[in-house]
Design goal:
The chain folds into 3 domains: 85 residues, Winged helix-like DNA-binding domain superfamily/Winged helix DNA-binding domain (Arc Repressor Mutant, subunit A), CATH 1.10.10; 117 residues, Aspartate Aminotransferase, domain 1 (Alpha-Beta Complex); 223 residues, Aspartate Aminotransferase, domain 2 (3-Layer(aba) Sandwich), CATH 3.40.640.10. Helix content is 41%, strand content 13%.
Length: 464
């Protein structure tokens, strides 16, 4: 039925088609939630039947179904078999999502094993015991002390990144490092290639700086060379953002042949590589990095938040000499200096050998948890990477938003793929679950049981 024929149709809710944006089901759910919370739609109001609303908006029925389902999972709507869908009573912005105070097993945020924090505490004591430690509470070199930079050089060398300390900067974590790189070396309107599912904070930074991210297709080995080549031919790319070891969110480890194939294309089109390798400590010995293959085109970021200590917020940027001046200028412009004490504790850990022990302990802890994970999700281990998180496909027809909300109502927090997809790339059919974040192995087992049951129930529904 044409849209204008509904102008006088007695529907209880008639959103304007012009207010919608892709993906439409999220836009409809957002408008519906806003009207319910504002009081425009009162409790127990019967909503238009899904097919009628689909005809009114000239959209597919499945789009309306997904929007209603999301609002129902949030507690905004309730359905009565044979009668329709209604606005829930007594809802507000404070209590429409999840009952307050309810215990939740954390499997969304990736925690880096706090069991190793006693070693950090001992290193802190050692750092403060040096006579010159009193100077750590003064203004200091914004780019790090000689000792701190040398420790950073040694740490990077352990993972195959060979460079001089003069080509390293200390930053306040990986996000600070990425901010410095984007502000220093890119401009508004520049285009950067990324995986079709990519790190959410990088998305946010690019959006803030008006840098356009261009999604490139991937497979189980990471970004596909032929897909990148096609994008390079069609788009004037300035750079490429890659997480070659345990890519967040997919957990993909990029094998050497794939790295070489991508390097050929990157070199051909003269792209600037941002290599975010926060999980490089999990890679097999001898893994070659883009920084080694393309030393004049790669900025390498190595955060210590997952390998050593999240709370200290220290990361290293390794770069070609030609980029030192703009990167230092960008760092000073941001005016967010790494805390001297934090950098000194990391240096103490590296110099004493404690950092390597922490890494080995974390890998052992991750191995135990991966063994538990495989008891519930029998994914065969095809490499020796002890991942901190896993990327699970959802059954057909179920969106990641729906599963995320359903799991939360069952007491498990996970993150859906819609959070990592670029705008307009509505392929939201995965969830990312962190196996390192539950407080205990018992909590991990309980969380995995709940997720396994939800997925099995959904799979059964497809065959009914």
């Amino acid at each position: 039925m044409p849209v204008n024929s509904f102008e006088n149709y007695p529907m209880s809710w008639k959103p304007a088609r012009s207010d919608l944006a892709k993906p439409y089901y999220l836009s409809i759910a957002s408008l519906l939630e806003s009207d319910i919370l504002s009081g425009s739609l009162s409790a127990h109001t019967k909503l238009p039947p899904q097919r009628e609303l689909a005809d009114y908006l000239d959209l597919n029925l499945s789009t309306i179904t997904r929007a209603y389902k999301l609002c129902e999972l949030k507690g905004l709507l309730y359905a009565v078999t044979g009668k329709g869908t209604f606005v829930s009573p007594g809802v507000s912005s404070e209590d429409t999502f999840l009952e307050r105070g309810r215990p939740v097993i954390e499997m969304g945020i990736i925690k880096p094993f706090y069991e190793t924090n006693p070693a950090i505490w001992k290193a802190s004591q050692a750092a403060l015991s040096h006579p010159e430690a009193v100077h750590l509470f003064e203004y200091s070199n914004p780019f790090g002390s000689k000792r701190q930079l040398e420790a950073a050089r040694k740490w990077l060398a352990l993972f195959g990144i060979q460079t001089g300390s003069e080509n390293i900067l200390l930053t306040t974590g990986a996000q600070n490092a990425l901010s410095i790189i984007l502000i220093s070396l890119f401009h508004p309107g520049d285009k950067i290639a990324v995986d079709n599912f990519t790190y959410t904070n990088f998305k946010g930074l690019a959006n803030l700086l008006q840098i356009q991210l261009v999604a490139v297709g991937t497979d189980r080995f990471g970004m596909r060379p032929e897909a990148l080549s096609a994008v390079c031919r069609q788009t004037n790319l300035r750079g490429i953002y890659l997480m070659p070891t345990c890519c967040n969110p997919t957990g993909t480890f990029m094998p050497m042949q794939r790295r070489r194939d991508l390097s050929d294309i990157i070199q051909k089109y003269d792209l600037l590589v941002i290599e975010d390798d926060i999980y490089s400590f999990l890679a097999p010995c001898g893994t070659e990095h883009f920084f080694s293959m393309l030393p004049e085109q790669t900025i390498h970021v190595c955060s210590t938040s997952k390998s050593l200590c999240a709370g200290l917020r220290v990361a290293f940027i390794a770069f070609p000499k030609k980029y030192r001046e703009p990167l230092c200028a960008g760092m000073l412009n941001i005016n967010l200096k790494t805390v001297s004490l934090n950098a000194e504790i990391i240096a103490e850990l590296i110099d004493s050998g404690g950092a390597e022990k922490i890494v080995q302990e974390k890998i052992a802890l991750a191995r135990r948890r991966n063994q538990i994970y495989r008891n519930y999700f029998g994914t065969p281990q095809t490499d020796n990477i002890e991942r901190f998180f896993h990327w699970i496909p959802l059954p057909g027809g179920m969106t990641s938003e729906e599963f995320e909300l359903t799991a939360l109502r069952q007491g498990v927090h996970v993150l859906g793929s819609h959070r990592f997809a670029l705008h307009g790339h509505d392929d939201s059919s995965y969830i990312r679950i962190s196996i390192t974040s539950p407080d205990t192995e018992s909590d991990l087992k309980t969380g995995l049981q709940i997720l396994q049951k939800l997925l099995e129930e959904r799979q059964l529904e497809l065959f009914v």
